[in-house]
């Protein structure tokens, strides 16, 4: 029977990496619980209250995002979901990407994609203007 020797990972400041991994693990647990509350609250308000799924249209979103509470709610849901998913994929990349160059490239793409979605999502939430009609130059709310 043959056995293989365990792979030895070169140490790179174990204390700082250990703290990062511990904090990462704690973040996953905390963000997961908070995401459950945010997502089920989102689903309840959007689907169970009022007329259900038939009420969801442009006007529904415009009315919801007119309230800063719902902007912050959706922003927290976006940020936590993206950071939670990014952290999970980072762990998977660390576990399965054998070559350091592959690991670096995959993590770079992951971080770039996460940053783009977070920035664009945040811009959409805070710059959303329901009064702009994309088909004309008129401001629909004031009819200028």
Secondary structure blueprint with pairings:
Elements: H1 14-48, H2 58-65, H3 68-96, H4 100-127
Helix pairs in contact: 1-3, 3-4
Keywords: Membrane, Transmembrane, Transmembrane helix
InterPro entries: SuccDH_FuR_B_TM-su
Protein name: Succinate dehydrogenase hydrophobic membrane anchor subunit
Fold and architecture overview:
With 144 residues, the protein is an all-alpha fold. It has one domain: 3 helical TM bundles of succinate and fumarate reductases. The protein is 69% helix and 0% strand. It contains four helices and no strands. The longest helix is centred in the first third of the chain and has 35 residues. The model has no long low-confidence stretch (mean pLDDT 85).
Percent in helix: 55-70%
- What order do the helices and strands follow? HHHH
- The CATH superfamily name is Fumarate reductase/succinate dehydrogenase, transmembrane subunit
CATH level-1 class: Mainly Alpha
**Got a strand count?**
0
Report the uncertain regions. none
Q: What is the radius of gyration computed over CA atoms, rounded to a whole number of angstroms?
A: 22 Å
Class from helix and strand fractions: mainly alpha
- Tell the overall outline: elongated
- The share of residues in extended strands comes to under 5%
Terminus-to-terminus distance: 83 Å
**How many separate helices?**
4
Sum this structure up briefly.
InterPro entries: SuccDH_FuR_B_TM-su. This protein is mostly helical and 144 residues long.
């Amino acid at each position: 029977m043959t056995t293989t020797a365990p792979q030895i990972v070169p140490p790179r400041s174990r204390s700082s990496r250990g703290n990062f991994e511990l904090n990462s693990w704690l973040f996953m647990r905390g963000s997961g619980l908070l995401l459950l509350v945010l997502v089920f609250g989102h689903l309840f308000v959007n689907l169970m209250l009022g007329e259900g799924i038939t009420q969801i249209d442009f006007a529904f979103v415009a009315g919801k995002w007119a309230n800063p509470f719902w902007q912050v709610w959706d922003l927290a849901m976006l940020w936590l979901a993206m950071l939670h998913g990014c952290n999970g994929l980072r762990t998977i990349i660390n576990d399965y990407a054998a070559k350091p160059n592959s690991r670096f490239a995959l993590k770079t793409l992951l971080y770039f994609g996460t940053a783009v979605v977070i920035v664009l999502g945040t811009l959409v939430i805070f710059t959303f203007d329901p009064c702009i009609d994309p088909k004309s130059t008129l401001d629909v709310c004031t009819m200028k």
